[in-house]
Design goal:
Layout (H helix, E strand, L loop, with lengths): L7 E3 L9 H8 L4 E6 L10 E13 L5 H12 L2 E5 L4 H4 L15 E13 L5 E6 L4 H11 L14 E2 L3 H17 L4 E10 L6 H11 L5 E6 L2 E5 L4 E6 L2 E5 L1 E6 L4 H9 L2 H19 L8 E10 L3 E11 L6 H8 L7 E2 L1 H11 L10 E5 L5 E4 L4 E5 L4 E10 L5 H16 L6
Antiparallel strand pairs: 1-6, 2-3, 2-9, 3-5, 4-5, 4-17, 5-6, 7-8, 8-16, 8-20, 9-10, 10-19, 11-12, 11-18, 12-15, 13-15, 14-15, 17-18, 19-20
Helix pairs in contact: 1-6, 2-9
Length: 430
Amino acid sequence: MGFLPLNMQLYSKDISKPSYEQLIQLTERFTVATVLNSNHYEDKYGKYEWIAACGADEFIAPSNSSFAALEKFQHENRWVFGGFSYDLKNELEKLNSRTDNPIGFPMLYFFAPQFLFLQRRNVQKVELFIANGVSNEVIESVLELLYEEVQINESQVPLLQPRISERDYLEKIGALKKHIQRGDIYEVNFCQEFYARNSVINPAAVMIALNSSAPMPFSTFFKCNASYLMGATPERFLCKRGETLIAQPIKGTLKRANHLEIEVEQLKNDPKEQNENVMIVDLMRNDLSKVAQRGSVQVEELFGVYSFPKVHQMISTISAKLKPEISSVEAIKQAFPMGSMTGAPKVSAMKLIDNHEESRRGWYSGAVGYFDADGDFDFNVIIRSLQYNAENQYCSLIVGGAITDQSIPEKEYAECLLKAKSVFNLTTKK
């Protein structure tokens, strides 16, 4: 069981397992909520099958000194959920973001929930933790809402238009390759946006449809006031289990067709994909070494290939033992933003990203996850995700890929479209 959260109590009655659709429907009753779903993928570091956190008993959204503020908040509340914007790079380095933030997620937002539903791995029982002070009447009301028949109607995503043309994309890749050839960087993750204005969608329905068509081990639904994240990400940024830190960067993508074994071998032995992957592995090893016990950083798996509904991905696993005097928040800070979404060297790559990308990433290529009452944490990388602001009716999908000297611009563009396919498949047909 671990430690009971300081600000919560365990509900003593047995409760039935809700469906994923019921969990998503319940979140719409709250101003702030999240559902994290593993979709039953095998994961030696996975701790929970799913978690749903609803209602902000307390929250934090600092405008500066974000990591220091989170350190205090996490220590006081134990069970907290939230996300890091990619733009936190501006606090960590002398960098800027020159474009607007139409989605409206804060740079950093975390909350201690009023209601926390979870199912642990290999355990059938569903647990419910409730914030201290919540009345029995409110508890019973929420449980009634949880088990209501699902009323969410089918909802599609509006047609999304590219922020930059294919021609402009190819030109930008050419310019970035010149920086690589000059030795300014070795690799850079370049992203582009597909968006729609004046769009009205049902975020809960879209999340249910996305999780059905593209179930992923780090699927994420996050609601913060009018801002929504609907994510189908396969990538873990960083997690902590006991004193061990685990990072699992993805670099290497191949479309899934009908020849599984051949495709896996093709990706596993692709020199370009290996080159991209090993650069980020080295970068992450360096990041973890800043907080790790001496000699503890290890590459547990290099060039592992994992298959998902639409694509195969090359995933490597790096582990380290955290120094006793280093906090969880500090460990995340030292590795943020994740190298798989920046490039190498990290700061030089981020400067080029700021100069060449035409939209602000916001929470895209940031991370969402939790700190739990045992002192562990787990955060994903926000990719393959749709973001939406219900007030200004702005809808955004950002996709990208690693650019190296070996990159063929046309193939990189095709890879972006492949990564966007799960969302594109939900768009309104005209």
